[in-house]
What does this fold into?
Amino acid sequence: MAIALQAKEEGFKGIIVPKANALEAAVVNNLEVFGAENLSEVIKFLNQEKGGMQQTIVDVEKQFGQLIENFELDFRDVKGQMNIKRAFEIAASGGHNVILIGPPGSGKSMLAKRLGSILPPMSLDEALETTKIHSVAGKVKGQVGIISQRPFRKPHHTISDIGLIGGGSYPQPGEISLAHNGVLFLDELPEYKRTVLEVMRQPLEDRTVNISRAKFSIDYPASFMLVAAMNPCPCGYFNHPEKECVCGPGVVQRYLNKISGPLLDRIDIHIEVTPVSFDELANSKPSEGSKEIRERVGAARTIQKNRYLLRNGIHCNAQMSMKEFEEHCKIDKAGSQLLKIAMDKMGLSARAYDRILKVARTIADLESKEKIEAAHIAEAIQYRSLDRTNWALN
It folds into this structure.
């Protein structure tokens, strides 16, 4: 696709590609694409002989519309965990990064894998941009011309710095770029090498990554939602309602210290996941599905889209700069007093202040409220568990 886009930009009428890549290249409008199986077909085509190649035509909008609603995983499959679903709805509505912390088997991975099903559908421009990145990396399947569902990338914790950020002798996109416009899921976060996690700090802030080499440098987009999951301690049962933690004194704090403050600073929502009870597992009553949640998320995103219409590169609340933050996250006296009390009583760090207000802004958008109210701030405060100075001592 990248080659086809460049050919169109330089004014070429058409392009000849391997037949396996024809659908991918044909996504580019106003460019004739011919797929060849061998050089004999190319020669016949150039000599205008019979039996040559046929033009590949793709109805992009039709194909995009057919694939956009197909999801294999649905929140309807999740038993209980209503508070976690609510937090994911807020995260999807505002594009906020999330970290899940809880014991093994509590459903962290199951919930994270279903986040993509409630994210708003990609626009055609987003789909083309995403397909272009995957095309450069050679990840586009031959039978699909365009990627219409948001990417969900789940790299193993043994991944290298280059594998995550991108690079190599001929720089290729890394996992953070392949997750552009989608979700990057890091399971068992403390098991990743610290250097691997630290290279994400700049892309999380700038939503782009620059790979520099001696002869050239290249920018790859990296606007993704980070979803991380971790156990609360090495044995996994710290704060468990039934099982006892066997970790020694100070072990929990050292385990959490594997995640640096600057990285945690870029994660807006912290969720403590508790095991699902037997009664909830045995309940046959169907829970709310992804479609219903996605409709509410879409309505909130529409509000944000209109709010940032004149702001280039800002599409959701999580992307707000300081200027937009000061303009759209104003709170009244009651809300300010509540936030002050929470920071004093719970020992919340100063870095939690703007994160709480951004999440509160999203909660207000879900309720179609123009102003942030005290109730919105109260709910947002609940999602800063790991910012409590005494969390690991509870």
